[in-house]
């Protein structure tokens, strides 16, 4: 557990997710899914069974190359940052990064702090050699943040999402850990 100080002087407590967080995480995702068009799911579209998700969280907690971090203020989740990795020998060195932040906490530095925390974690785990992520080509602020942290565009998935009546492209980005 550690703390991050935001630009607005609020302090966010960061801790690893456990199986007891399953219901709260599912509920959080279903709320924030409706706050942005930049996630792979919309509001109330994060359909996971609580027991199955508890197992997933427990498995992730036991993997040396995967992590799920919860950002909380007053014990309420305001962000989730994760790196999920395969356990297969051929691909376990690659982690897929994801970050979700509650809308009221956008623009005050939390995304950058979470990204840096995940990159630092990856450097220390002795397995992860590459972090990959996907993002909408329209998510310009996030793309700039990722580039500032060293991520490079590795490819484009054309028209792979359908949002508000439009097909959108997704960028694949990667960062090699040294």
Helix/strand structural class: alpha+beta
- Tell me the overall shape: globular
Reading the helices and strands in chain order gives: EEHHEEEHEHEE
Number of helices: 4
Oligomer: single chain
Strand content: 35-45%
Mean pLDDT: 96
Major sheet attributes:
8 strands, mixed
Q: Poorly predicted ranges (pLDDT <50, ≥5 residues)?
A: none
Summarize the structure.
The protein has 4 helices and 8 strands.
Structure write-up:
The chain has 178 residues and is an alpha+beta fold. It has helices at residues 22-32, 50-61, 110-124, 140-148, and strands at 2-5, 11-16, 67-73, 76-85, 94-101, 130-136, 152-163, 166-176. The mean pLDDT is 96.
Could you name the key traits of this structure?
about 180 residues, globular, 8 strands, 4 helices, alpha+beta, single chain
Q: Topology, please?
A:
Elements: E1 2-5, E2 11-16, H1 22-32, H2 50-61, E3 67-73, E4 76-85, E5 94-101, H3 110-124, E6 130-136, H4 140-148, E7 152-163, E8 166-176
Parallel strand pairs: 5-6
Antiparallel strand pairs: 1-2, 2-3, 3-4, 4-5, 6-8, 7-8
